[in-house]
UniProtKB/TrEMBL annotation, chain A:
Classification of source organism: Bacteria, Bacillati, Actinomycetota, Actinomycetes, Kitasatosporales
GO CC entries: plasma membrane
Annotated gene: nuoH
Ranges that cross the membrane: 7-26, 79-98, 110-133, 154-176, 182-200, 229-253, 265-286, 298-321
The name this protein goes by in its record: NADH-quinone oxidoreductase subunit H
Chemical reaction(s) catalysed: a quinone + NADH + 5 H(+)(in) = a quinol + NAD(+) + 4 H(+)(out)
Native organism: Streptomyces wuyuanensis
Automatic annotation (TrEMBL), chain B:
Chief subcellular location: membrane
Highest taxon above the source species: Bacteria
Species name: Streptomyces wuyuanensis
Broadest EC class assigned to this enzyme: translocase
Protein name as it appears in the record: NADH-quinone oxidoreductase subunit A
A single GO molecular function term of this UniProt record: NADH dehydrogenase (quinone) (non-electrogenic) activity
EC number per UniProt: 7.1.1.-
Signal peptide range: none
Length: 323, 133
């Protein structure tokens, strides 16, 4: 019975993180972007600096009419947001935030493998949405999404494989247990490749060609309204949480820190994740959108070779150290 | 209790961790179902023919939504399938390659493997596949 309670609590915690952290990042994005652009951002909802803006948005979304175009493939159209959102929930369960067994949803042996495989499912949601909408803009957007995932999944896999080589395991807690501070400079190229490729998979600016509003309205999500549209947005922000968390765990040493790693390890994880999330927002404000062919070229001619070089470096250093 | 062989114990652990993942998937499905159900109760339903029209910048849609478009991405899809299948094999290899007794041999193997990948990309590059036509 105790086991059942333990599992229930873990699931509840993961689910709470899944609902709260994306909203925190969304609200931060509102405020940070505003201040970077010399605006104030939301100021009214909730009273104090508009802290409840996203709650208000959620209430508004829930009251909106749910329009399914007459020409659309109804069932697939309605199911797509769920397919886009749920993979990120599943990935969160495997990310450790602290050194103890209580600080991870569940230890999955094949950690990296599981995480990358499940994250790849999310793109099906966008493809389903774009195809089922029976809208030319949506179809174009969906195809761009798929092409982008194809291009950037490979450097991401290779960069992650480099960490697995360094640690000699694919389990996420195992990687953190093996972590040493000098992995940071050793794996820095892999870290950059992983983070950039992750940004592209989430279709965040400057890689937001699939939803480029000035040419294809909102890509695959053009026909969506109300709650279903809100779920797509939630998926994007949950994706940011997952990407930043994973980068922290794989490359930045997760709960390791200069001090207090035993008791306050989870604080280090959260801090590093938050800093990365801030960078995600910062990049959105800073860079213009890449063109579609530039997007593909960056992946194939820059990131993939860099990731291969990182694997070579990791392999040589590891074998030299071992002998 | 009878002592189980080690492999059985390992297998039990394996299923235990993935059953938790399965439970979480169930929680997620419930969440979406509840959200959609509640949405159905909360929102207005006032469909009009204009509202249900496909959106095409405000003018009447021309032709079908599933129109023929030129798809330039299939080459990338081919490239991806080839390389991704290759790189999956990196993961099991990565966990053992530095163990005692492998050492230099696996390292040479790795460079052969990377060489194949690099030649593949160079070939695609040379063929002009990676530049927009």
């Amino acid at each position: 019975m105790n086991d059942a309670l333990d599992v229930a609590l873990r699931l509840l915690a993961v689910f709470a993180v899944f609902l709260v952290l994306p909203l925190v990042i969304g609200q931060t994005e509102h405020k940070v972007m505003a201040h970077m652009q010399g605006r104030l951002g939301p100021m009214y909802a909730g009273g104090f600096h508009g802290w409840a803006q996203l709650v208000a948005d959620g209430v508004k979304f829930a009251q909106k009419e749910d329009v399914v175009p007459a020409a659309a493939d109804r069932r697939v159209f309605q199911l797509a947001p769920a397919v886009a959102l749920l993979p990120y929930l599943l990935v969160l369960v495997a990310i450790p935030i602290g050194p103890s067994e209580g600080a991870v949803g569940i230890i999955v042996d094949a950690g990296i493998f599981f995480v990358l495989a499940v994250m790849g499912v999310g793109v099906l949601g966008s493809l389903m949405a774009g195809w089922a909408s029976a809208n030319k803009f949506s179809l174009l957007g969906a195809l761009r999404t798929a092409a982008q995932l194809l291009a950037y999944e490979l450097p991401m896999l290779l960069a992650a494989a480099s960490v697995a080589m360094a640690a000699g395991t694919v389990s996420l807690p195992g990687i953190l247990n093996a972590f040493e501070w000098w992995w940071l400079p050793w794996q820095i190229v892999g870290a950059l490749v992983f983070f950039v490729a992750g940004l592209a998979e989430l279709q965040r600016p400057p890689f937001d060609m699939p939803v480029a509003d000035s040419e294809i309205i909102f890509g695959a999500y053009t026909e969506y309204t109300g709650l279903r549209f809100a779920l797509f947005l939630l998926a994007e922000y949950a994706g940011i949480v997952v990407l930043c968390g994973l980068t922290t765990v794989l490359f930045l040493g997760g709960w390791h820190g200069p001090f207090g790693a035993d008791g306050l390890g989870w604080l280090w994880t959260l801090l590093k994740t938050a800093v990365l999330a801030f960078i995600v927002i910062w990049l959105r404000v800073t860079y213009p959108r890449l063109r579609e062919d530039q997007l593909q070229r960056l992946a194939w001619t820059t990131l993939v070779p860099l990731a291969l070089a990182q694997i070579a470096l990791t392999g040589v250093v590891k074998v030299v150290m071992q002998s | 209790m009878r002592k189980l062989p080690e492999s059985t114990v390992l297998a039990a652990d394996y299923f235990q961790s993935y059953s938790v993942v399965g439970l979480l998937a169930l929680v997620g499905v419930l969440f979406v179902a509840v959200a959609f159900g509640a949405g159905r109760l909360l929102r207005p339903v006032v469909p009009t023919p204009e509202k249900l029209l496909t959106y095409e910048c405000g003018v009447d849609p021309v032709g079908e939504g599933w129109a023929h478009t030129q798809v330039r991405y299939y080459v990338y899809a081919f490239l991806y399938v080839i390389f991704a299948v290759d790189s999956i094999f990196l993961f099991p290899w990565a966990t053992v390659f530095a163990e005692a007794g492998y050492g230099a041999t696996t390292l040479v193997e790795m460079f052969i493997f990377l060489g194949f990948l690099a030649v593949g990309i160079l070939y695609a590059w040379k063929k002009g596949v990676l530049t927009w036509t």
